[in-house]
Amino acid sequence: MKLPIHAVLTIALLSAHGGLLAAERAIDPSKSSISAVFTQMGVPVEAPFTRFTGRVDHDPAKPAEACALLEIDTASFDIGDDDYNAEVRKPEWFDTARYPKASFVANGLKPTAGGSYEAVGKLSLKGRVAELKAPVAIKAEAGGSRYSGVVVMSRKAFGVGDPAWQDTVEDPVKIKFQIFVPAAR
To answer: Which of 158, 162, 156, 164 is nearest to 122 (CA)?
Structure first.
């Protein structure tokens, strides 16, 4: 049986950090957001992914041991128009029938200037996997912590986009995230 790449990455993450699973906490999607910002015909467009899950294991005293898993339902990308939403689910774009999930698995946080961090991990999208470095700001809030940032990626590197739209939709895409993780109980 061939496992999807996000399942393999999840198993690897859990195996590598087996001793830390007790501290792992699920994200709260109702207080979190993940969106893509792309430029179409010279105009920036921001659209959210409305369904995603994830887990974070982070001890502020040990940032190098942090780990995270985010899984995004690619069919939940909502441009705000039913016709466009149907278009981006097609094989030329997200191919949601074959690849219903995208995932990001990060191991460790590296401190950067200004009290922020960099999470280095593997992004799996549309059957392709690539390393991605995501800047992360962490803010303590009532009841938990918020992890936020913006990372730029190439949609073409993941085979996302109909060739007929190459002159209409620019390649770089910004992924904006605000992930809320409730405090451990």
So the answer is: 158
pLDDT tens digits, 91-147? 999 999 999 999 999 999 999 988 899 999 999 999 999 999 999 999 999 999 999
Q: For residue range 22-42, list pLDDT tens digits in order.
A: 367 999 999 999 999 999 998
Residue 138's Cα: distance from chain center in Å?
A: 16
Across the chain, mean pLDDT equals 87
In three-state secondary structure terms, 163 is: helix
Separation between Cα atoms, residue 150 and residue 130, nearest integer Å: 17
- The answer to pTM > 0.90 is no
Cα-Cα-Cα-Cα dihedral sign, residues 79, 145, 153, 4: negative
Q: Kindly state the helix (H) or strand (E) to which residue 7 belongs, with its residue range.
A: helix 5-16
5-182 CATH fold:
Lipocalin (2.40.128)
Distance from C-alpha of 146 to C-alpha of 157, rounded to nearest angstrom: 29
CB-hemisphere CA count at 13 Å for 6?
A: 21
User: d(Cα 176, Cα 37) in Å, to the nearest integer?
Assistant: 8
Where are the chain's structural domains?
5-182
Residue 119 makes CB contacts below 8 A (sequence gap 6+) with 66, 68, 106, 108, 109, 133, 134, 136
